[in-house]
């Protein structure tokens, strides 16, 4: 059980002050530039993936790359929910965020984050069908079924975000209003509540734990079957290509789940490392995803070369 120091209900909080990332004042300009560049590169990198999947017929006809396009779209929005607010904290602009703005930020962060969690699971399932049941794959994972699965992930993510936002802000907030974090997230906001937060902490632990653990176990199950199927492939080139299509996905799953587990499955933690870990999966991971898929995925690199070659030939004709 944790209560804020001021339990008077005479004052109702109408806004919050985001204290942001602790930093030496001398580095403010440098950090502003670093996060600004990261944000721009994140948007451009994910937009490049999105446009490549849309423009190349060989990619947007395959469910795996439809899912990759959706992942890039989610990364662009997730970064936009968090990073601009971080950048503002390095300027003289007020660090105040309205109560409604805080609710919206928490909702969209968990909505987009949980949708990503479900999407990673769908990507693992897609790879399982492609490698373990290649003859039935075109029937089992057609465009219509892929659209249904993606829609289900969005709906489930929205429900999850609504539950977390409703539970967090149903509590009274009567001061103080300084959020010791760089965005409105469940643990730092709950520390300001003027009521018992033990139920919220339990529900958050169970809810996020069940979602993350279920998705992670399904991913592990999919890849256990994938590895078993790959080891049966006779040619080394065939095994290498099969592992290549899975390597990128396994990498992004790792950089997504490990920080989330560190942050949310340690109820009541106030570790100073939480902020650094949160920066990694909210700021760095959306930047890394397009790099991982372009550097490690041969199909995406080939598509980029085809698009570049096509534009070159058009310019020559002109």
TrEMBL record:
Keywords: Cell membrane, G-protein coupled receptor, Membrane, Olfaction, Receptor, Sensory transduction, Transducer, Transmembrane, Transmembrane helix. It is a multi-pass membrane protein. One of its GO terms (molecular function) is olfactory receptor activity. It holds the Pfam family 7tm_4. Residues 45-293 form the G-protein coupled receptors family 1 profile domain. Signal peptide: none annotated. The keyword Transmembrane applies. One of its GO terms (cellular component) is plasma membrane. The chain crosses the membrane at residues 30-53, 65-87, 107-125, 145-163, 208-231, 243-265, 277-295. CDD domains: 7tmA_OR10G-like (cd15916). SUPFAM superfamilies: Family A G protein-coupled receptor-like. It is found in: Cell membrane. This is Olfactory receptor 10G2.
